[in-house]
Amino acid sequence: VHLVESGGGLVQPGGSMRLSCVTSGLVFRLASMAWFRQAPVKERQFVAACGWIPSRTYYADSFRDRFTISRDIAKNALFLQMNHLQPEDTAVYYCAAGIPTTPAQMFPREYEYWGQGTQVTVSE
What would the pLDDT profile of 73-88 be if each residue is shown by its tens digit? Predict the structure, then answer.
């Protein structure tokens, strides 16, 4: 199983960015997918999840109004649209995949597969 993130980089405060995660080696349409992030010296933080029922999405309260998670079954791809980015959003963003066990899987231990991460830096 491979997960490859892309789309990170440098963006100014208030800007937008779209992250992508292309998967291979798993039955994408049946997997629970999620985005996490990790800032320096901080724990990995749940951002958003998309259950195996694509219409069901879950967000951490901090991101509900600014971020949107989506998936394209045909492309085996997961996306994270991030708007109104702020410096505190600076982190490495990780794509994760797992076997569905609960409707909303919000903890890193619930995901078996991880991408290498993509750096997002929000700065002037």
Answer: 899 999 999 999 999 9
